[in-house]
C-alpha cells in the first residue's frame, strides 16, 4: 500500500473520460487520491477535448471517446480506473497493458497462473495470454483470476479452493479456443471440477447468448429511433452534440418530418446543422461514394450513418462509427465478390440473426432464410444443426460469423480456409462474441477516399504534439535549410491528380558503391549544396479511382516555388569549374529530356567547362516560366509546391532521395519520366497506369519490388514508423534535416542527439515489457566525435528499459524504401563502417 505523502504519481498528469461506469463521483474520489500521492489532474479544454500535449495518462473505461486514436499515436497510456486503485494497492505504478480498455486486448483483466500443464503448452498459453493484455504469476494470490489446470489435484488448485479465492479454474482448452478465434468466449463450459465440454455431448442444443456489441447496431438503416436507454437519460438534457456541426447528407432520403425532428434535437443540444461538408464535424450519410463522404473523410471528419446517429441520441455519448460495422456508411454496390453469393444463417438468434441478415445484404450477397443446394455459404454459430448437415452433404462452405464480419471490415472477401472462420468450440454458441469486429480504416481510405486536394491534418498535429512532450533537449539542432548536403540530385516531379502539378528536384548522378561515413546514405557525387526551399520535399497521398484523364483535369493551382528556383538555377553560370546543386547541367538535362526536346544535342564534359559556349544557345532553347506555365495549364497539370498532396511521383529511375522516399511513404505511385515527355510532346494526358516505373536493375540493387513497396505504403498510410523513437547525431555528416523529413513522413518520433543532449527517454518498469525492451535507434556515422556519443546513448536507453541500436542511416533508408520495419545487425555502425 502506498504511503501517504509519497510521490507515487509524481510527474504524472491525468485526464478522465466520464462514462456510465466511470461516474463523476468515482472520478472525484480517484482525483483526490492522485493529488494526494503527488499527481495532477487536468481539466478539459473549453471545447471539451483533452489537453493531450500536457497529460501523461488518460483514465477511461472505454475507448469510445474522440481523441482515443490521437492519444495512442502520441503514446499516451489509456488505462481503466482500476489501474489507479491497483497502483495504490501495490505502492508503485501498476503495469499498463492489463488495464487497457481496448476490447481487442481480450485478456486485459486476466491474471493467470498455471498448474499441471506440460511446459510446452504452458509457455504457449502464457505467451499468448500476455500478448493479448493479460498477466502471469507463478504464484496464486488474491489477484489471480484464472488458474489453467488439467485437474483439481494440483496444490495450486487445492489452495485456491480451500481459501475460496474468486478465480476461475479452467482447462487449457479455453485458452486454445480463444486463441483460435481471436475473441474471448465464456469460461463456463471449461470450468473445473466438472467441465461441460467433457461431460455433455457437443450435439446438445445451446441457448444463444445476447452480445452486448450489437446494441443499436443491427441495421445500417433503422426503421425507427430507439428511446433513451434508461429513464434517467430521458430526463437529462442531450449534450452529445454540444458545439458540433452536423451535416445530414441528402442520400439519407429522410422524410421532412424526421429531418425536422433530428434538426430540432441537434440544435437544442447545442449543435448546428450545416450543408457544407468541409465545415462539418460529423457527417451522417448512407453510402461511401458521395461527394460529401469523400470530402469529409479526406478531411478527417467523423463519418457515420443513420444508425450511428440514433445510437448517439439514445446513449447521449460519443461512439466511434468504425467500431461497429453497421454504424458506418455502406458500399453502394457491396463488397467485391459477394454479388453472386447466396448465404444462409444457422444457430444465431434474436438480434444476432437480424444483424447478420443486414450485414450479408450490405456486403452485396443474397440472404436466404432457407437453405438449398444453390446456396454458396452457411454462416453458423455452431456446427450442429439440420442446415449444417445439409451443408456437408451439398459441399456448401460452412463458416462462423467472423468470416462475413472480417470480409466486410476489410472490404474484400476473405478466404474460407482461414482456420478461425471454421472453428466451432464444442459447447459455445458463437453468437455471444458477435459484433466485436472493427472496420479497417486503412482499407477504407485506400478504396473509398484515397487522397485528393484536401488531406486530414490530424497525423502531423499528433506528431508535433508527441515531439512537444519530449524533453527540451530533444529539440532539432543543426541547419534549417530543410535538406541534407550531398542529396543526389534527381529530376523528380510530384503530380497531383485532380489539380494536376509537379515539382523539380535537380538531376540524378550515377550511383556509387556502398557509401562512406562522410557521405549521405544515398549514392551521390560530392557537390556543393545550396540551401533553401528547393531542397524541401512535398508530401503525397495515394491515388484515387477516377479515369486517367479525369485524374489530370481540374483547376491549376499556383506553380510551385520549386519551379521558380529551378528557372533561377538554370540562369546561373558555372563557377570555378563546378556546377551548383540543381544547376546548369541539371537544367540542360531536364530541358532536353523532359520539357520540349528542343535541343538536338547535349553538352559534353568539355563543353561543361566553357560557360560562354553554352550560355547563349541555352537561353534560346529554354522555355520561360510563363511558357512552362502555359504548357501545364493546357493539360490541367500542376506541379505541387512543398507540403501539398500529390498522387504521382515521377522519376527516371528508382532512387533514395528525400523527395522520393517522402512521397513513396505516403503511397504515391511512381511513374517513369517518359510520361511527362509524352504529355509535353503530344499535348495529351496518357494513362498513367501505362507508365508505372519499371527498374529491375535498381530493384535488385536495393533488394525490393517497387510495386510491393507502393502497396505497403498505401496500407501503412504514413504510419510505418509510428511511435518508434529515432535519434540522429547532431553532428552527422550532411545534416539531420533529410533524415528528419524521411522519418517524420512515416510518423516516427525524431529527435536530435548531441553532446549536450540530456536524457529524453522516460524510465519504465522492466516488468511492463513482457516481450523484452523496445528498440530505440540512433543514426550515426563512425567519426571520432560521434563515437563518443554511442556509450552515453546506450546507457540512456538501457536506463529507460529500451534496447539501444546505433545504426548507419542506411537502415532508415532501406526500411522506408521497402516500407517494412525490419532489422539486421549489418546496419549496426560497428559492422557497417568496417
TrEMBL record:
Ranges of residues in domain BRCT: 4-101, 102-192, 338-410, 627-693, 758-829
Family annotation (SMART domains): BRCT (SM00292)
Name of the protein in its database record: BRCT domain-containing protein
Basic and acidic residues composition-biased segments: 489-499, 585-594, 606-616
Coiled-coil spans in chain: none
UniProt record, GO biological process: DNA double-strand break attachment to nuclear envelope; double-strand break repair
GO cellular component: Cul8-RING ubiquitin ligase complex; nucleus
Region (Disordered): 450-555, 571-626
Stretches with biased composition (Polar residues): 472-482, 537-546
Amino acid at each position: 500500500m502506498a504511503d501517504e505523502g509519497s510521490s507515487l504519481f509524481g510527474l504524472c498528469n491525468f485526464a478522465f473520460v466520464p462514462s456510465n461506469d466511470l461516474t463523476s463521483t468515482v472520478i472525484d474520489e480517484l482525483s483526490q487520491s492522485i493529488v494526494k500521492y503527488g499527481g495532477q489532474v487536468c481539466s478539459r479544454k473549453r471545447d471539451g477535448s483533452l489537453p493531450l500535449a500536457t497529460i501523461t495518462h488518460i483514465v477511461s473505461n472505454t475507448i469510445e471517446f474522440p481523441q482515443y486514436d490521437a492519444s495512442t499515436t502520441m503514446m499516451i497510456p489509456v488505462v481503466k480506473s482500476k489501474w489507479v486503485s491497483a497502483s495504490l494497492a501495490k505502492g508503485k505504478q501498476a503495469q499498463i497493458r492489463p488495464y487497457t480498455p481496448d476490447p481487442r486486448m481480450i485478456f486485459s483483466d486476466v491474471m493467470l497462473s498455471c498448474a499441471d500443464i506440460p511446459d510446452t503448452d504452458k509457455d504457449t498459453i502464457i505467451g499468448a495470454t500476455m500478448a493479448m493484455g493479460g498477466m502471469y504469476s507463478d504464484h496464486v494470490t488474491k489477484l489471480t483470476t484464472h488458474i489453467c489446470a488439467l485437474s483439481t489435484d494440483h496444490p495450486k488448485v487445492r489452495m485456491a479452493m480451500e481459501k475460496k479465492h474468486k478465480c476461475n479454474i479452467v482447462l487449457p482448452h479455453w485458452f486454445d479456443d480463444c486463441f483460435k478465434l481471436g475473441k474471448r468466449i465464456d469460461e463456463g463450459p471449461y470450468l473445473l471440477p466438472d467441465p461441460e465440454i467433457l461431460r455433455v455431448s457437443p450435439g446438445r442444443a445451446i441457448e444463444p447468448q445476447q452480445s452486448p456489441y450489437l446494441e443499436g447496431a443491427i441495421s445500417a438503416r433503422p426503421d425507427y429511433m430507439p428511446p433513451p436507454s434508461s429513464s434517467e437519460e430521458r430526463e437529462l438534457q442531450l449534450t452529445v452534440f454540444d458545439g458540433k456541426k452536423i451535416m445530414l447528407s441528402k442520400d439519407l432520403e429522410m422524410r421532412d418530418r424526421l429531418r425536422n425532428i433530428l434538426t430540432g434535437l441537434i440544435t437544442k443540444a447545442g449543435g448546428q446543422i450545416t450543408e457544407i461538408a468541409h465545415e462539418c464535424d460529423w457527417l451522417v450519410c448512407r453510402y461511401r461514394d458521395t461527394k460529401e463522404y469523400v470530402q469529409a473523410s479526406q478531411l478527417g471528419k467523423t463519418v457515420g450513418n443513420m444508425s450511428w446517429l440514433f445510437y448517439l441520441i439514445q446513449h447521449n455519448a460519443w461512439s466511434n462509427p468504425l467500431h461497429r460495422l453497421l454504424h458506418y456508411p455502406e458500399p453502394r454496390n457491396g463488397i467485391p465478390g459477394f454479388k453472386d453469393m447466396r448465404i444462409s444463417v444457422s444457430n444465431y438468434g434474436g438480434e444476432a440473426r437480424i444483424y447478420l441478415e443486414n450485414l450479408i445484404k450490405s456486403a452485396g450477397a443474397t440472404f436466404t432464410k432457407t437453405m438449398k443446394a444453390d446456396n454458396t455459404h452457411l454462416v453458423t454459430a455452431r456446427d450442429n444443426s439440420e442446415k449444417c448437415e445439409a451443408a456437408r452433404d451439398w459441399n456448401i462452405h460452412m463458416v462462423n460469423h467472423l468470416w462475413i464480419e472480417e470480409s466486410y471490415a476489410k472490404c474484400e472477401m476473405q478466404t474460407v480456409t482461414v482456420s478461425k472462420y471454421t472453428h466451432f468450440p464444442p459447447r459455445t454458441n458463437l453468437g455471444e462474441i458477435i459484433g466485436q469486429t472493427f472496420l479497417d480504416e486503412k482499407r477504407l481510405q485506400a478504396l473509398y477516399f484515397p487522397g485528393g486536394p484536401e488531406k486530414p491534418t490530424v497525423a502531423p498535429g499528433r506528431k508535433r504534439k508527441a515531439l512537444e512532450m519530449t524533453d527540451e533537449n530533444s529539440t532539432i539542432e543543426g541547419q534549417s535549410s530543410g535538406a541534407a548536403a550531398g542529396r543526389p540530385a534527381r529530376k523528380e516531379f510530384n503530380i497531383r491528380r485532380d489539380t494536376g502539378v509537379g515539382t523539380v528536384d535537380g538531376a540524378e548522378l550515377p550511383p556509387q558503391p556502398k557509401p562512406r561515413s562522410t557521405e549521405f546514405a544515398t549514392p551521390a557525387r560530392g557537390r556543393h549544396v545550396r540551401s533553401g526551399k528547393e531542397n524541401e520535399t512535398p508530401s503525397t497521398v495515394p491515388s484515387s479511382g477516377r479515369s486517367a484523364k479525369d485524374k489530370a483535369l481540374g483547376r491549376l493551382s499556383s506553380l510551385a516555388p520549386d519551379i521558380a528556383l529551378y528557372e533561377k538555377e538554370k540562369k546561373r553560370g558555372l563557377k570555378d569549374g563546378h556546377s551548383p546543386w540543381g544547376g546548369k547541367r541539371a537544367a540542360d538535362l531536364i530541358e532536353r529530356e523532359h520539357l520540349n526536346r528542343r535541343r538536338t544535342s547535349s553538352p559534353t564534359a568539355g563543353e561543361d567547362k566553357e560557360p560562354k559556349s553554352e550560355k547563349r544557345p541555352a537561353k534560346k532553347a529554354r522555355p520561360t516560366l510563363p511558357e512552362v506555365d502555359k504548357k501545364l495549364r493546357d493539360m490541367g497539370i500542376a506541379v505541387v509546391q512543398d507540403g501539398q498532396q500529390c498522387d504521382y511521383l515521377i522519376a527516371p529511375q528508382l532512387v533514395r532521395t528525400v523527395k522520393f522516399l517522402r512521397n513513396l511513404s505516403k503511397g504515391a505511385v511512381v511513374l517513369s519520366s517518359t510520361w511527362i515527355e509524352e504529355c509535353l510532346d503530344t499535348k495529351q494526358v496518357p494513362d498513367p497506369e501505362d507508365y508505372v516505373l519499371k527498374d529491375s536493375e535498381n530493384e535488385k540493387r536495393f533488394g525490393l519490388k517497387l510495386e510491393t513497396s507502393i502497396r505497403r505504403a498505401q496500407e501503412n498510410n504514413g504510419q510505418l514508423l509510428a511511435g518508434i523513437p529515432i535519434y540522429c547525431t547532431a553532428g552527422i555528416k550532411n545534416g539531420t534535416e533529410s533524415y528528419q523529413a524521411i522519418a517524420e513522413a512515416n510518423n516516427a518520433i525524431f529527435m536530435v542527439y548531441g553532446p549536450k543532449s540530456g536524457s529524453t527517454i522516460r524510465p519504465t518498469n522492466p516488468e511492463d515489457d513482457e516481450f523484452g525492451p523496445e528498440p530505440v535507434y540512433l543514426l550515426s556515422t563512425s567519426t571520432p566525435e560521434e563515437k563518443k556519443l554511442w556509450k552515453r546513448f546506450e546507457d540512456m536507453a538501457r536506463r529507460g528499459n529500451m534496447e539501444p541500436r546505433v545504426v548507419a542511416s542506411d537502415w532508415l533508408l532501406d526500411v522506408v524504401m521497402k516500407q517494412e520495419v525490419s532489422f539486421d545487425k549489418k546496419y549496426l555502425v560497428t559492422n557497417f563502417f568496417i
